[in-house]
Amino acid sequence: MISWRSTWSIYTRELMRFLRTAFQSVLAPVLTTSLYFIVFGAAIGGRMPDLGGVDYGAFIIPGLLMLTLLGETTSNSSFGIYMPRFTGTIYELLSAPVGVSETLLGFVGAAMTKSLLLAAIILLTARLFVDYSIAHPVLAVFYIMLVAAAFSLFGFILGIWADNFEKLGIIPMLFLTPLTFLGGTFYSIDMLPRPWDTIALANPIVYLVSGLRWTFYGQSDVNIWISFGITLGFLAICVAVIAFIFRTGWRLRA
Amino acid sequence: MEPILELSGLSKVYPGGLTALDNVDLTINKGEVFALLGPNGAGKTTLIGAVCGLVRPTSGSIRAFGHDLASDWRRARNRIGLVPQELSTDMFEPVHRAVSYSRGLFGLAPDRDRIEEILRSLSLWDKRDERIMALSGGMKRRVLIAKALAHEPDLLFLDEPTAGVDVELRKGMWAIVDTMRERGVTIILTTHYIEEAELMADRVGIINRGKLLMVDQKDAMMARLGRTEAHITLARPLSALPSEIARFPVELEPGGEVLCYRGGDGTGKGKAEVAALTKALIAADIDYVGIDTRESSLEEIFVSLLGEGKAA
Ligand SMILES: Nc1ncnc2c1ncn2[C@@H]1O[C@H](COP(=O)(O)OP(=O)(O)O)[C@@H](O)[C@H]1O
Ligand SMILES: [Mg+2]
């Protein structure tokens, strides 16, 4: 039996934490998105051909969105659980009559809300630079929420696994960022020479970027269902890992 | 007496092999104030952690309010509050919000009046909009108490509520404990200030190296282990103990000038016996010039028990 009040408390508190740094939370994505558009959209994009009939500036929007979302969602939720462990305030969550369901719904719900806000900010900023329209807006929102859920869970695992600040930063830095950059953010993997176009398919981020691009422009590097399936699979793995963590108390309970 | 918390055979071995709790059996009754007394590293925090879900017991069972904590933890934890030893709170949060959050987290509907009452009773109402980091250490601790009381628990753990707190604040804390006791909250507190246990607790448990060495009513413990010691300085030295006072537990100290009484218990029997002893001395025409009596405290009981614990 899940306690909705407890879930709501965790959810609102997480959002509050986000809003406490609202200025930074809004300004940072606006700034980075603008920079990417100035460099890739305006400077380089002018010399790029359209990709599948999509203007290059518009083409990179889903990639940029994914780049920011993955980074922000992962770091946000990993800090969200790491900091209470670090400062000891996690005692309250552990001693409360809440289980894995309340905790996850609260944390992940908040992460999804934040991601949608972030996505909205990025899309509005992008509008200043390029004209674009979204082919499947409802699916786009749904897909963003799905990815946000998966990566907030991933961040959650990271924040529980890490026992120092270095470890907290290392996975995003060593894996997430490079894989995102190599994941077709700024190019279509068709543009890669052989055999790199095939090797690129081993990068899971390719499917995420491609999936989001499909919801935007109705076309993508890989089939939307594969993208969707991989995102769901990743989500399921994360849920299973977290359920295991809560059941055993690994790194949470002494 | 209605048991509210029952630990049986509770053990905790930390990874690495340290036994922090060693087969602890303990029953806490409704409405009592129980002091868990022990030196640093004795296992007090571990015991509290095991009940509150912060520590996974290695073996043994815990029942709270009749619910087995291993299976029915939700219903038990609803009614348990914890004030941790460390001052850990979200420093950026305003007092009022931190306390309201705690209430919500435990699944209770918001209740402004109740929160106001809690904050007022802890003299935090004026600080309700302050961020916690702007408060003094004593106030931070009271915020933690307010958070623990926000869901109106029936059983409250206070882990070293007065450690590192000045005398004034300690007295304030005792008053808070008294108020809660009057409301019928069962309180388990840990401390290494023996005077605190003596002052506040109904029962005392002494723990060392994970073993609960003794649990008893505070008064009974004093009665069982308490001692009166009296030094009677004689007007003229004696060479041997006179037969008139042989029935008392007395010794003649080297030199024959001081008569030393050690006996009685913690109930005042010792004082009465010392009075009888002085009368016997006068009757036997042995004059004295000074009497110095003292009752042993829980502290001495504590120290002597720990000594035995070490020897074992
Ligand atoms: N998480 C932990 N891992 C390993 N050992 C621990 C841990 N927590 C406490 N201990 C050890 O267990 C013993 C009991 O600690 P604790 O319960 O905190 O004692 P107390 O609260 O009475 O001072 C100590 O020796 C302490 O070092
Ligand atoms: Mg302790």
UniProtKB/TrEMBL annotation, chain A:
Segments traversing the membrane: 21-44, 56-72, 104-126, 138-162, 168-187, 222-246
Predominant location category: membrane
Official protein name in the record: Transport permease protein
One GO location term (cellular component): ATP-binding cassette (ABC) transporter complex
Chain ranges of the ABC transmembrane type-2 domain: 20-249
Family statement drawn from the similarity comment of this UniProt entry: Belongs to the ABC-2 integral membrane protein family.
Pfam family, one: ABC2_membrane
Superkingdom of this protein's organism: Bacteria
Keywords for the protein's UniProt record, in alphabetical order: Cell membrane, Membrane, Transmembrane, Transmembrane helix, Transport
Subcellular localization: Cell inner membrane; Membrane
MF-aspect GO terms: ABC-type transporter activity
Record-linked InterPro entries: ABC-2_transport_permease, ABC2_TM, ABC2_TM_bact-type, ABC_2_transport
PROSITE patterns associated with the record: ABC_TM2
Recorded topology in the membrane: Multi-pass membrane protein
Species, as recorded: Qipengyuania citrea
UniProtKB/TrEMBL annotation, chain B:
Lineage top rank: taxon: Bacteria
InterPro entries for this protein: AAA+_ATPase (IPR003593), ABC_transporter-like_ATP-bd (IPR003439), ABC_transporter-like_CS (IPR017871), ABC_transporter_ATP-binding (IPR050763), P-loop_NTPase (IPR027417)
GO molecular function annotation: ATP binding; ATP hydrolysis activity
Nucleotide-binding listed as a keyword: yes
Record key words, sorted: ATP-binding, Nucleotide-binding, Transport
Record bears the keyword Transmembrane: no
Segments forming domain ABC transporter: 5-234
Protein name: ABC-2 type transport system ATP-binding protein
